[in-house]
Every structure is written in structure tokens, then in C-alpha cells.
Amino acid sequence: xxxxxxxxxxxxxxxxxxxxxxxxxxxxxxxxxxxxxxxxxxxxxxxxxxxxxxxxxxxxxxxxxxxxxxxxxxxxxxxxxxxxxxxxxxxxxxxxxxxxxxxxxxxxxxxxxxxxxxxxxxxxxxxxxxxxxxxxxxxxxxxxxxxxxxxxxxxxxxxxxxxxxxxxxxxxxxxxxxxxxxxxxxxxxxxxxxxxxxxxxxxxxxxxxxxxxxxxxxxxxxxxxxxxxxxxxxxxxxxxxxxxxxxxxxxxx
Length: 253
Known about the structure:
The protein is α/β, with parallel strands linked by helices. About 45% of the residues lie in helices and about 15% in strands.
């Protein structure tokens, strides 16, 4: 098992990509801390992990809150004594409120940035303190191709936050490389997940998105798992500061 004896924190792990990665990490031998605001769904993920014979705990967490993040990290260290992997997956997309810049309210901007950029920063800030003590660790941030390209002009705050997350990843990779702390980014494409459900309410819209993807299908949660395991594991010991695209080939055309 590629993550045997590792302790992993996964934020936004109650559903979608986060839940899939939490369960895959457990299958690869990791003990997992499931962090999310949704206690019901988060607890269900924990139950599935435990039913498969792995150790898991749920910690209700608002990653935009310093106190909540402190509690998450303290709980993880209290339970396991270390943090080997921080998987920053939690994020929000405010469809209908996140607009072109001149129409975007400061309230919406702040709401998106607090979760999508401040949240991963807070989690990394506190996880790194523990990783420095123990001699290393891996941070994996989940960004978006909207952070690389202007492909979502009506999602100003979301796109800016995801671009900032890529920049945060790179500067942390450079800052902590000599401390054996790695930081990398996964960039999913158009994924068939709860966050994107609003996009696919109409079959014609779903087909339009699907037809633009060279591989001919939308992404699924399972498509992310392999890259996530690789970046969390010692197999990627020489990889830091990277941005790993998983988008069915969209960024090649």
C-alpha cells in the first residue's frame, strides 16, 4: 500500500472529489481525518472508511476560520502525533453571485476568497508547523484551470482565488523544500461533481461541455485519485511546486 502508516487530512471530504480521495487514501493504507462543514455526510465517509478496516475521524471544520483550523490540526496531532499529508480540497463556487469584476460585490469576493484561498493558507500554515517538527510532509492543493486561463469570465472571484492557490503552492514549495516539505497542485478539468451540478442541469449544456473534451467525457472523482495518491506518497519525493493537469486534454487544444 502506497500510503501505509501515513496520516492524511482531507478538507472538503464529505462529498465529491474530497470524499473519493479520502476513501482512496484509506485503501492505500493511510489513516484519514475527514474535515468538512457537513457533519452528516462527513460521518458517512468515516463510516465507509472504518468499514473497510482503516482508521478515520471526522472533524467539523470551517477552513476560513483560524480557530476552526487550529482545532482541526490540534485534533489530528492529538489523535496521531503527526500530519504527513494535507490535501486542501475544500472550496466554494457561488453561481449567480460570482460575476464580472464591475458587477461583483465585495461580499461575494470575500466569501469566495475566505474559503478558496484563505482556507488553504490557514490549513497549510498550521500543518507546516507540525511538518517542520517531524521532518517533512506533503501538501496537495486542488486548484482549477480557471486559475490558469480566463475560461470562466463570469467567475471572477473563483478564478482569482484558484490562481492565487497555484501561486501559494509554488512559493511554499520553494520556501520549504530544504525542510522536506513538498507542495503541489492538482488542476482538474470539468468534473461531474456536486459543485458543478448547476452546469449540467440541462442535458444540452452537459453535452456542450462534454463535446469540448478531447477524451470525450466529463471527469469523475475517480480520475483524480491516482494523481492524489502519487503526490501524497513517497513516489513523488522529487516533485514539488508542480501543477498537475487532469482535464481530459482540454488544455491541449
